[in-house]
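Short-chain dehydrogenase structure dump, as promised
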Amino acid sequence: MKNSMIDRTYWIIGASSGIGRALSIELAKKGATLVISSRDENLLISLHEQLDKSNGQTHLVIPCDASAFDSLQEAKSIIYNRLDKLDCVVYMSGIYHPMDTAQLELSWVKSIVETNLLGPMYITQLMINDLLNIPNSQLVFCASVAGYRGLPNAQPYGASKAGLINFVQSIHAEYGRKLDIKLINPGFVQTRLTDKNQFSMPFIIAPEQAATAIVSGLLKHNQFEIHFPKRFTLLMKCFTSLPYWLYHRLVRR
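structure tokens r here:
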């Protein structure tokens, strides 16, 4: 893949806030043309005003609900009515709500699973055949290190991200030779989602730092997983190799 974002078009789903917003700003600075989507049209419009257009880019605002297949399908139709092609689809949408297992709020469970796991499956069904026919195209999903292994109060968020990690690994096993498929696994990033946490978050970084790491990873064709900050994510990777008895002892509340 060429080491440039210029002349490439990225559809960022979940662009209105957090890492998705910072990533959109960073990609536009690199010369990319963007389609920005989320449920909040007002936030998308304010983001559009911030996006760099110095390379003559015409960025599009296409609101949609990432948890609804019909909404994503309609957004795709609108995009293709206005653009010739998409080079990259980046699924950044995510919902997080910490819960105790004994007090699961089923309405939250449904929303989390629909957005964090079903949404990526919907967009894959809608886009993979198109992307397979475009040279140097990419399909990118944002999961989390919370999906590496079970953590207290992380369900159903952690479960949805674990499912997403497995799903993206499976797509890569099937199509990795034909399509650049990438998996983003952030550690703690300062966003409205992590603002809900009432515990210490080691090595937390700003969304802008996360965006820089993602852009760097997008330019590396042979890199499947983009994870950051390394000093935290590498530690979490070590935890995945521990025997259950030791892991449970370490993470038990």
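DSSP finds eight helices and seven strands in the chain.
lmk if u need the other ones
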